[in-house]
UniProtKB/TrEMBL annotation:
Classification via Pfam families: adh_short
Tagged with keyword Oxidoreductase: yes
Name used for this protein in its record: Uncharacterized protein
Keyword Oxidoreductase: yes
Disordered: annotated span: 113-133
Keyword annotations from UniProtKB, A to Z: Oxidoreductase
The organism of origin for this protein: Bionectria ochroleuca
Length: 133
C-alpha cells in the first residue's frame, strides 16, 4: 500500500531558525507547496529576506511569508511569535522548532542535575564546578 500524501497547501507553518540554513530551505519548500510561513529568527540572511519579499502577499495565488524577530530562549519573544502568526494568518497548523541554541560545554545536558559537575543553583553551594578538562 502506498503511503498517503500529506498536503500543506493552504496551511500555515511557524519555522524557528528559518532566517538561514536548513530551516530556511524547509520554509522555502513549504512556501513552494502552498503553505503560509512565519519565519522566526534573530535575523535574516539576504536569501531569506528575498523569500519574504517574493511571498509578501501581493499575488493572491501564492502563499504568504512573514518575518518575526524571535529569540527562542526568551518566552516573551515566543508569545509574540505566536501572536503575530495568528494576527497575520488566523491560526497555524505546523510548528517546526528548528532554531539552533548554543549551549556552553558545561551545559546540564551532559551533566544532569545532582551530579558533581552539573552547574545548577541547587548544587552550586555544595559542589565546586570545574571547567578544566
Amino acid at each position: 500500500m502506498a503511503p498517503a500524501s500529506f498536503s500543506v497547501s493552504g496551511k500555515t507553518a511557524i519555522i524557528t531558525g528559518a532566517g538561514s540554513g536548513i530551516n530556511f530551505s524547509f520554509a522555502k519548500l513549504l512556501l513552494s507547496r502552498g503553505c503560509n510561513a512565519t519565519i522566526a529568527d534573530l535575523s535574516l540572511r539576504p536569501e531569506a529576506d528575498a523569500l519574504i519579499t517574493e511571498y509578501n502577499g501581493d499575488d493572491s495565488r501564492k502563499p504568504r511569508a512573514i518575518f518575526v524577530k524571535t529569540d527562542v530562549t526568551k518566552w516573551p519573544d515566543l508569545h509574540h511569535m505566536f501572536d503575530e502568526t495568528v494576527a497575520a494568518f488566523g491560526s497555524f497548523d505546523i510548528v517546526c522548532p528548528g532554531a539552533g541554541v548554543y549551549e556552553p560545554h558545561w551545559s546540564n545536558f551532559w551533566h544532569p542535575q545532582a551530579r558533581p559537575r552539573a552547574r545548577t543553583r541547587s548544587r552550586a553551594t555544595t559542589t565546586r564546578c570545574s571547567t578544566s578538562t
